[in-house]
Amino acid sequence: MQYSAEVENMCPVAKGAYHGPAPIPEEGKWVQAKEIKDISGLTHGVGWCAPQQGACKLTLNVKEGVIEECLVETLGCSGMTHSAAMASEILPGKTILEALNTDLVCDAINVAMREL
């Protein structure tokens, strides 16, 4: 490709400063989470399935990107109760990304996981 002399003599323009990800508050300090292992803390998510069927609250205690504790509170169908018991056994020890990719059977629990 041939460029004009004017284009040849142009100097490249650099991009602006890189500021990184937005800081999030974690255990008393502000952290720029660049990797999954940078995330620690306690979080809640609320999920629901079909209207007037049920809801659940998912509470996760995360240390260095790995789920240490999982609490699932349910209100609704018996299937959700069964799925909650399964989720509370499966999720501890997984990273947040692995947990998001886990199908927890119940739509309400899956929605709660997505809302975290």
Describe this structure in words.
The chain is an alpha+beta fold. The protein is built from 4 helices and 5 strands; from the N terminus they run H-E-E-E-E-E-H-H-H. The protein has a domain at 35-115: Sufe protein. Chain: A, CATH 3.90.1010. It is elongated. The N and C termini lie far apart (51 Å). This is NIF system FeS cluster assembly NifU N-terminal domain-containing protein. It comes from Candidatus Olsenella excrementavium.
Offer a few descriptive terms.
single chain, 116 residues, alpha+beta, Sufe protein. Chain: A, 3-stranded antiparallel sheet, two-stranded antiparallel ribbon, 4 helices, elongated
What is the gist of this entry?
With 116 residues, the chain is of the alpha+beta class. Helices cover 27% and strands 30% of the residues.
Count of discrete alpha- or pi-helical segments spanning 4 or more residues: 4
End-to-end separation in angstroms reads: 51 Å
> Briefly, what CATH class of the domain at 35-115?
Alpha Beta
- Major beta sheet, strand line-up: 3-4-5
Gross geometry: elongated
Helix percentage range: 25-40%
- H/E element sequence: HEEEEEHHH
User: What Rg is obtained from the alpha carbons, in whole angstroms?
Assistant: 22 Å
Count of DSSP strands: 5
Strand content: 25-35%
Gross CATH architecture of the domain at 35-115 = Alpha-Beta Complex
Main beta-sheet strand count, sense and barrel state: 3 strands, antiparallel
Low-confidence stretches: none
Helix-and-strand structural type: alpha+beta
What is the CATH T-level topology of the domain at 35-115?
Answer: Sufe protein. Chain: A
Q: Kindly state the mean pLDDT as a whole number?
A: 88
